[in-house]
Amino acid sequence: MAERRSDATRAAILVAARERFASDGYERATIRSIAADADIDPSMVMRYYGNKEKLFAAAAEFDLQLPDVSAIRAQEIGSVLARHFLRRWEGDDTLTALLRAAATNAAAADRMRDLFGAQLLPVVAAVCPDPADAPRRAGLVASQMLGLALCRFVLRLPPMVAMPAEEAAAWVGPTIQRYLTSPA
Amino acid sequence: MAERRSDATRAAILVAARERFASDGYERATIRSIAADADIDPSMVMRYYGNKEKLFAAAAEFDLQLPDVSAIRAQEIGSVLARHFLRRWEGDDTLTALLRAAATNAAAADRMRDLFGAQLLPVVAAVCPDPADAPRRAGLVASQMLGLALCRFVLRLPPMVAMPAEEAAAWVGPTIQRYLTSPA
DNA sequence: TCTGAATGCCAACAACTGTTGGCATGAGAG
DNA sequence: CTCTCATGCCAACAGTTGTTGGCATTCAGA
């Protein structure tokens, strides 16, 4: 398939959509505001993405790119994962968009649960002592990492915004480590 | 001031508002739906609370009722606080309403930061070794507790919903303890 | 019993939402 | 050049939102 002339427009819409969803959440991010950011007519958004729900689905496509844990020393997995999450979060609006939207939109919450089950869970299962514990352990890891992201990027609690990523990872790393590998 | 006949109506509106804000978030919780839940005309909501923003402010009034930490043994503060948070969250829609709304509404996020600064911070300052660390330590505590609430009550991650409160507190307690009192 | 205020409902408003259809414009193939 | 189709914009739609003013009813105090 040759490159179409509209591909640039499609991409611009996606970028604007991610920014709006990230800063405003699902309902307050309007098709009109997204289109305005992309310097485009609102009807183009509809033509290229069908409707708002599908636009969000396209904008919220995300790969955590979790590292191969078998290549990491067992004792360091917690801090490696903490650092990885923070970096992934800071470099891309998509996760913040997903988190903000998931608080009020059912489809976004679904997507979040999918991401949890399809990407985080397998990694946890590969690391933790008893695979039967994996869902609970993964849930705990998610609660700490999502809570950190919530305070830092969504609620913007001043001390968590000011804290350098390296320091945050240093605090949270041992927590993740314990949730992953602590006996019981 | 004598009890007015409208006090029951005012209270019913507040209850319905909390439920709606908790389950739908700020923008999807409409005045009309709240009024319908309270079996009342939407215009009454306006008369008694002025506008939607003030209604939310009234519905999101909340006291964490944090215990007096000086009466608790230093080593147990983490698990006591974890249990307290979970119980407080489960018995009242207000915190879920506040959390859901804070993800997309600026006033709600403000309220959340207030609650953090006015109620959690002093307790942390009274416990942690160096008072200068209090904001950061309190921020970390918030990130874990809010993350837990997010996964359990908002995103409804299956393993976190299924986990008994006592088990969740047992996992999270040591984390809180470390954020509060660990050196460095 | 009469009066005035409190309480409640109805109807409507302007603004905004997602969404749609039709019409212009441009480029590229023949 | 001509024809065609993808790309883009404009105008409008139906529905929902927060919000308002007016009218009925009910209660409390004289």
Count of helix runs of chain A: 10
Helix content of chain A: over 70%
Q: Report the oligomer.
A: homodimer
Q: Measured on Cα atoms, how large is the radius of gyration of chain A?
A: 18 Å
Total beta strands of chain A: 0
Q: N-to-C terminal Cα separation of chain A, in Å?
A: 53 Å
Mean pLDDT of chain A: 96
Largest inter-chain contact set: A-B, 43 and 43 residues
Low-confidence stretches of chain A: none
Structural class of chain A: mainly alpha
How many domains comprise the coordinates of chain A?
2
Description:
Two copies of one chain form a homodimer. With 184 residues, chain A is an all-alpha fold. Chain A folds into two domains: 7-59, Arc Repressor Mutant, subunit A; 69-181, no CATH class. Helices cover 73% and strands 0% of the residues of chain A. The first copy, chain A, binds a DNA duplex (30 and 30 nucleotides) through residues 4-6, 9, 27, 30-32, 40-44, 46-47, 51-52.
Question: Which helices and strands appear, and what pairs or packs with what?
Answer:
2 copies of one chain form a homodimer.
Chain A (H helix, E strand, L loop, with lengths): L6 H22 L2 H7 L4 H8 L2 H8 L17 H14 L2 H10 L3 H22 L6 H21 L3 H5 L2 H17 L3
The structure holds a DNA duplex (30 and 30 nucleotides).
